[in-house]
Design goal:
Layout: H1 2-18, E1 23-25, E2 29-32, E3 35-47, E4 50-60, H2 78-82, H3 88-109, H4 113-122, E5 129-134, E6 137-146, E7 152-156, E8 161-164, E9 168-169
Antiparallel strand pairs: 1-2, 2-3, 3-4, 5-6, 5-9, 6-7, 7-8
Helix pairs in contact: 1-3, 1-4
Length: about 170
């Protein structure tokens, strides 16, 4: 829920401040024109039924004027896409406002049903063939979007719908 909320919040803030429509690669990477502009990592510590902490790191390529040749074809920045400097303080404030709203909706419903439509509308690989690499299992199928638990739904070639909880999707 935290990563999903963060992803849609970054999309909303970047659209508002820069006019760019970012796409989400499940679950935590944001892209523009096929190039990565943001990565989100969430770490959590729990004990039995208690969450000690949740930390979400959001790394956005904001002001990069160029990238090393080896990643130039796969990475971009807000500056490169708009030609304008973006004030980080305004971007952070816009992300936090959006994040708080999305997270409040999650807490109210105790699921991601209220986030599903906005997340799925930004899901870059929705409706496309994907390869799922999870521990001990690899398969291909059609990405359908996320469910109310944030799991990626993938329809395999035999028609079965699998829920991807973790792993790499490419």
């Amino acid at each position: 829920a935290v990563t999903v909320s963060a992803a849609v919040a970054v999309c909303r803030a970047v659209k508002r401040l820069c006019g760019l429509d970012l796409g989400i690669k499940w679950v935590n990477d944001l892209y523009y024109n096929g190039k990565k502009v943001c990565g989100i990592l969430t770490e959590m510590s729990t004990e039995l039924e208690c969450i000690n902490y949740i930390v979400t790191g959001i790394g956005i390529n904001v002001a990069n004027h160029e990238f090393p040749e080896e990643i130039r074809d796969v990475a971009t920045s807000l500056y490169l896409e708009t030609g304008k400097e973006v004030r980080r303080s305004q971007l952070i404030a816009a992300i936090m406002r959006a994040y708080e709203g999305y997270y409040d909706k999650f807490m109210e419903n105790q699921n991601m049903k209220s986030l599903m439509d906005v997340y799925n509308s930004r899901l870059a690989n929705c409706g496309t063939q994907v390869r799922v690499l999870s521990p001990g299992n690899e398969y291909t199928g059609m990405a359908l979007g996320i469910d109310e638990m944030g799991e990626l739904l993938v329809r395999t070639e035999d028609g079965k719908v699998c829920k991807v909880i973790s792993g790499e999707v490419s």
